[in-house]
Description:
Layout: H1 2-48, E1 61-70, H2 75-79, E2 84-86, E3 100-110, H3 116-127, E4 134-140, E5 145-152, E6 155-156, E7 171-176, E8 181-188, E9 190-201, H4 204-212, E10 222-231, E11 239-253, E12 257-266, E13 272-281
Antiparallel strand pairs: 1-9, 1-11, 2-3, 3-8, 4-5, 5-6, 5-7, 7-8, 10-11, 11-12, 12-13
Amino acid sequence: xxxxxxxxxxxxxxxxxxxxxxxxxxxxxxxxxxxxxxxxxxxxxxxxxxxxxxxxxxxxxxxxxxxxxxxxxxxxxxxxxxxxxxxxxxxxxxxxxxxxxxxxxxxxxxxxxxxxxxxxxxxxxxxxxxxxxxxxxxxxxxxxxxxxxxxxxxxxxxxxxxxxxxxxxxxxxxxxxxxxxxxxxxxxxxxxxxxxxxxxxxxxxxxxxxxxxxxxxxxxxxxxxxxxxxxxxxxxxxxxxxxxxxxxxxxxxxxxxxxxxxxxxxxxxxxxxxxxxxxxxx
Length: 282
């Protein structure tokens, strides 16, 4: 009798243990399979909304945030620049640290009708302090500007150019007149750049997907480019921390307009740090 009771207890205990282990197994399997199901659904949803991209990497990588200091330009190096002089608004007599210089050329420098970028690159290399540290970004014909950003390890240090915040750190802007001549420029620079933390980064495709469910990407959007760089949301007085980001360029068309959008996405966690939109008549 005792043996039968003992046997029954053992059977019940092992049955409970089997149920527990089965539950653990299927729960673990569900957790492991859920991201795959979610990703598949996300890609299907994007396809249904006619959101397209090509040649974007699906590979994640490692990257670092960087720290940097604003460079203080010495009066002696400013005075050593030949064929140019400080603009009247740039007052160096007060003795305040100069972190941005604004200069005028004694003689305007003509730009060619074609391949403006090559000539602009030549001006920056030859006429500007440490010009090789900057890389061409874009030509803004509406503002008569040719813009260069500083780079680190070949990647742009993106600038916050929204709302005329004047928070630029590490850029050169050439100003040209109606005769297509460069007449002046402004320059800021970062120095003592150091890597401060290495982390896992999402892929370019992962950054695009991070824009989808929060509804940043509208139907019929086309991803034009995705570029890895650095960005800071909160410019400080001197020391800065820049995080690795993806800059995503998007284009979509409506009935009468072509809309260009730009998104800055944190490459560490997919958070959207900045958005910008520009509309053009079709």
